[in-house]
Design a protein that fits this description.
Chain lengths: 112, 114
């Protein structure tokens, strides 16, 4: 079945440093979504990427979808303590709504 | 978040007992999902529903059943709970429109099976 690999599992950064998490799928994706989960909370939708090579920005966050639609990345510029949490990518292969395949997430730990 | 509630929020039960978790949504969404979240595994799909009485299995459906008799309610049942089903369970809905999809998650249910 479809697998979505996400690295790194943990990332420690000093506040103000940049952070990147990477996602790779074993199959071509129709779209990829990114979620953030704060400790003790539930996943919260950040963005969806659909087009090959797509790049989207949300303030300090930059999301990319690879040309082959099999990989994606999330980059945070100048991290802040509010960025703490786990970032998940989630991929979909078909055109339906039969559930997402999630990566295992990257835990972002920020040291002030 | 999209009017999703889950009940109970916490539950402790014993091995072999049946357990039912409820997901309730107020916005008439067609698609509903049950995921479990475990350390080192991320979120894994258990079952999903694409309409009343229309359900299908996900990646980790063994030991679980679901029912959806009304649009607003999606029930997850552990017929005979085992310790391996100790987990955090999240319900989610998909909001689809204009080619875009967003999944909204409920607050989660923490289940401990002793």
């Amino acid at each position: 079945g479809q697998q979505v690999m996400q690295i790194p599992q943990y990332q420690h950064v000093q506040e103000g440093e940049d952070f990147t998490t990477y996602c790779n799928s074993s199959t071509t994706l129709s779209n990829i979504q990114w979620y953030k989960q704060r400790p003790g909370g539930h996943p919260v939708f950040l963005i969806q990427l659909v087009k090959s090579g797509e790049v989207k920005k949300q303030k300090r966050l930059t999301f990319q979808f690879g040309e082959a639609k099999k990989n994606s990345s999330l980059h945070i510029t100048a991290t802040q303590t509010t960025d703490v949490g786990t970032y998940f990518c989630a991929g979909r292969t078909g055109g339906g709504a039969d559930g997402l395949t999630f990566g295992k997430g990257t835990h972002l730990i920020i040291q002030p | 978040d999209a009017g999703i509630t889950q009940s109970p929020r916490h539950k402790v039960t014993e091995t072999g007992t049946p357990v039912t978790l409820r997901c309730h949504q107020t916005e008439n969404h067609r698609y509903m999902y049950w995921y479990r979240q475990d350390p080192g595994h991320g979120l894994r799909l258990i079952h999903y529903s694409y309409g009343v009485k229309d359900t299908d299995k996900g990646e980790v459906s063994d030991g679980y059943s679901v029912s959806r008799s009304k649009t607003e309610d999606f029930l997850l049942t552990l017929e005979s709970a085992t310790s391996s089903q100790t987990s955090v369970y999240f319900c989610a809905i998909s909001e689809i429109g204009g080619g875009a999809e967003t999944q909204y998650f409920g607050p989660g249910t923490r289940l401990l099976v002793l």
